[in-house]
Specification:
The protein is mostly helical. Among the domains are: 106 residues, Serine Threonine Protein Phosphatase 5, Tetratricopeptide repeat (Alpha Horseshoe); 116 residues, Tetratricopeptide repeat domain (Serine Threonine Protein Phosphatase 5, Tetratricopeptide repeat). The chain is 52% helix and 0% strand. It is elongated, with a radius of gyration of 40 Å. The N and C termini lie far apart (115 Å).
Length: 348
């Protein structure tokens, strides 16, 4: 009489078993198969940057570990990227204008503008540097050197600081202090290796000291370093013409003529080069060719606005008779020239 009650009970047990399987607690599997392990699942292993065969560990390609804060792989053996600290130094926006004035040849305007900056802010080493450059370009070498020295003494990391010794070297050279100039150019080359103009300057010093072999090496090195199409043709010309001077010093006018012509092929406005070419041709007895070179010298002088050195000095004009006329300005006008906005060339 109680047997029918067993059927609902058995059915209930079957439903409960199916429910537990749905929750992943029991997996009966096919007949004869082993029951699944009831041990707790293993945690995922930390990334090692290598493929892993662990059941629950992620497969990571070599060298592509899981990222950590900062974007660097947690296991990558590559050293972390160095953080470059920000460097700061006193500066003034007027110096950008002064740099453009210097690059366009308006040295007096640049000097006046930089002086204004230093009057207001004497601690700006970059202004001291540019003032030294302006005075060097104006051939005021004795005045230039203290400003260049102070720009270094302030120890400020402005980008042009490494070139201060270069301009100090030229100032010393033109003041006749060859030993000091050589030290400055060598100091510049320690900061900026293979800088052709400092190497050329060392050649000039060696030439003046009659160390002709050293001079030739420096001039040739300066030429080798300027084979890029963007190199200054003027600088190439002056190096070749100095090689011609060296050949003349060695009493080889034929070699000098060849080198002078090479230099003039780079920069035909080098009027001194034409004069030297004429002298080498005179030594070789090439009278007509020498005369032709003299004519080219005169044309080059006219092109660059240099008057003939043999021309008489102009007679100064008579003073004005109108006493009511306003006096001539005693200072440079404040308005800069129209080409002051030209892009600046790389400073040295």
């Amino acid at each position: 009489m109680r047997r029918p009650l067993l059927l609902p009970l058995i059915a209930g047990i079957a439903v409960l078993s199916a429910t537990l399987v749905g929750f992943g607690q029991v997996s009966p599997g096919p007949p004869g198969s082993k029951p699944p392990s009831t041990a707790p699942a293993r945690e995922a292993s930390p990334p090692t940057g290598k493929p892993t065969n662990q059941p629950n560990g992620p497969t990571v390609p070599p060298g592509q570990g899981t990222s950590v804060p900062g974007g660097a792989p947690a296991d990558d053996k590559t050293p972390p990227e160095k953080v470059v600290p920000l460097v700061s130094y006193p500066d003034d926006p007027k110096l950008a204008i002064a740099q453009r004035l210097l690059s366009s040849g308006h040295f007096e305007y640049a000097k006046n503008l930089i002086t204004q900056v230093l009057d207001a802010r004497p601690e700006v080493g970059r202004a001291e540097f540019f003032l030294g450059v302006a005075l060097t370009k104006m051939k005021k070498y004795e005045d230039a050197r203290p400003h260049l020295e102070r720009s270094l003494q302030l120890r400020q990391p402005f980008p042009e600081a490494k070139h201060a010794h270069h301009f100090m070297g030229w100032a010393s050279y033109h003041l006749g202090e060859l030993g000091r100039a050589r030290s400055d150019f060598e100091a510049h080359l320690a900061e900026v290796p293979d800088e052709p103009d400092s190497i050329f300057a060392l050649g000039l010093i060696a030439f003046d000291e009659d160390r002709l072999d050293d001079a030739e090496k420096h001039f040739q090195k300066a030429i080798e370093l300027q084979q890029d199409p963007k190199a200054s043709r003027r600088d190439l010309a002056k190096a070749w013409i100095r090689l011609g001077d060296l050949s003349m010093r060695r009493d080889d006018p034929a070699k000098a003529e060849e080198r002078y012509m090479t230099g003039l092929s780079y920069f035909a406005d080098h009027y001194e080069g034409w004069a030297k070419l004429a002298r080498s041709r005179e030594r070789l007895g090439k009278v007509k060719e020498a005369e032709s070179a003299r004519n080219e010298e005169q044309r080059a002088r006219e092109r660059v606005g240099v008057k003939d050195i043999e021309a008489p000095l102009p007679v100064p004009p008579a003073p004005p008779t109108n006493t009511d006329a306003p006096p001539a300005p005693s200072s440079i006008p404040a308005t800069p020239p129209t080409d002051a906005g030209k892009p600046a060339s790389p400073s040295k």
